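Lab notebook page, bench 4
Experiment: in silico fold of construct C2
Operator: M.H.
Input chain length: 288 residues
Purpose: comparison with the prior construct
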Amino acid sequence: MTSKRPRLQTDLAAALAEQEMPGIKWKAILQIAGAIAVLWITAFILVPFVGYWGVGVVGLLTLVAIGFGIYVWRLTTRSRAIIDIMKSAVDEQGRQRAIDALGGDDKDAMKALARAQLLGQTDPQEAQRVLEAVDIAKAPTMVQDDVRGQLAMLYLRNNRTREARALVDLMRLDRRPDPKSKALYAAVMAEALARTGSADEARKLLETYSADEAEQAEIRAMLLRAQVYTFVTLKKRGLAKRAMDALVEIEPNLLGSFLLKGGHAEVAKLARQSLAESGVGPKIKYKM
């Protein structure tokens, strides 16, 4: 009796169908509104002691809170609209229509990021060009690390490790809103660190985000890939081989990127060995 390998979810439309739509966090809004109400009450109580300065400060804080709320609401609305467009990519024609709908303005970081995700399925080079055109410094804070992480991922696949390292050095995992994206970008960061001389730092990061505890195959694959480079750099070949074998179990095609010209010679050797032992052989397709 043979065990069935867990497969990676490669259909973008199916993945987006499972994605939770961005929404307004009403509980947090009510908590903020309650705190502001308390400040107003306190400010008026203190008028006999400090005058109306306190009221003015609270009024300014209220305006800032309202402005920030409008900003978040607009971003949430844009995110929902973009995800709706991406969900229409159920076939090749739908994917092309979604790409066209998201195109025309590479300065819009949110649209550029979504467009790059669609393009990456068939044209990784064009996806990379789209992300490179984004002015990350002018992008919304919540999107900046997404652009950096996705672009660093493409650079690592093409063995452009220095460019990837420059991007991940600016990323902060504490800004990530959910555990899945934290683990994903931790894997990208760890691989870039390991391949640019900071393997010890990469190992500490991977100990925090364990591949064995990753629930989704996509995240586990990324963490295992980072483990391969980390352990090879640390000269722990046994651990690197174990991670490589685990990648074969998830999807043999994932090892294709290790065999590209200009890659790490020891990693390529391990990939060929794991493929040979699995019975798949070296003739596999390279998937981004």
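Observations: Confidence is low (pLDDT under 50) at residues 1-22. The CA atoms of residues 194 and 230 lie 5 Å apart.
Next step: discuss at group meeting.
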